[in-house]
Write a structure and sequence with these properties.
The chain contains eleven helices and no strands. By secondary structure, it is mostly helical.
């Protein structure tokens, strides 16, 4: 029952997908981080279903790519993009760790956040457009799968990593976690993710996984250096960067295989 409540909390926090109302008790937060990847799995299913319908309707590549880019933003309510923009402002300030943490609390956004978000979305849209242009369903399926994998990595880094501050929603979820069991579930989910990616396409899947892992490692190193650890905003920033890295890796690998 607690696992189900943790799942409902994960969906109500990290998505705009309607869920039954549940009271947020600390005991029910034990497995939220383990359930977080399930949100990504549902987004992946909806994304692939939309792609299939678009193909049946004969929609052009540009419009289909636009839908594919908007779906994750709509389903998550932009919560991770919000973290990406806040973290972008903090990193661009070149101030002390304490001052950067204060910037993360500021609800306003600066010019650097807008610029970096535009760069990210243009790059992501271009990669998605190119993936759809390839006309190969397995390649697009890998893109969808990245939503599942990015959240597994995000949750694992959050549970195993160091918090930059002793408050915030991410800290509450991590601090309430039964870490041993949560990590066991996350490892199982990671094995499923790797198996599916490799089954869909051994080469492209492996390249995507490597790109996502490297993205998280680099982002974690930057976050530790800049703010002393992870926050909810930093986690959202890492997740967005990882999904963009996955999309770029998938499309580049798809073209590389055609050249070989």
């Amino acid at each position: 029952m607690r696992l189900l409540r943790s799942l409902l909390i994960a969906f109500s926090m990290y998505s705009r997908i309607p869920t039954p109302h549940t009271e947020w008790k600390e005991a029910d937060m034990k497995y939220v981080m383990a359930c977080f990847p399930v949100v990504g799995a549902v987004i992946a299913l909806i994304q692939y279903a939309a792609y299939t319908v678009a193909a049946k309707l004969g929609l052009n590549v540009f419009f289909t790519a636009s839908i594919a880019v908007c779906i994750p933003l709509i389903l998550t309510g932009g919560i991770h993009m919000d973290g990406f923009m806040d973290m972008s402002d903090a990193l661009s300030s070149y101030k002390s760790k304490e001052e950067r943490l204060e910037i993360l609390k500021d609800p306003h956004i600066g010019a650097f956040a807008v610029i970096k978000a535009m760069v990210l979305m243009i790059l992501y849209f271009g990669a998605v457009f190119d993936i759809i242009s390839l006309g190969e369903k397995p390649v697009f399926l890998l893109l969808c799968l990245s939503y599942f994998g990015s959240r597994i990595l995000c949750a694992a880094f959050a549970v195993c990593g160091r918090s930059a501050k002793k408050d915030g929603m991410l800290y509450s979820f991590v601090n309430s976690s039964e870490k041993g069991l949560v990590m066991a579930i996350l490892v199982t989910e990671m094995l499923v993710f790797i198996m599916l990616a490799v089954l869909i396409s051994p080469v492209i899947g492996a390249i995507m996984i490597l790109a996502m892992a490297l993205s998280y490692l680099v982002c974690a190193w930057i976050a530790y250096k800049a703010i002393g650890g992870l926050t909810g905003d930093a986690a959202g920033w890492m997740l967005c960067a990882s999904e963009c890295a996955a999309a770029v890796a998938v499309t580049l690998a798809g073209h590389l295989l055609r050249l070989i």
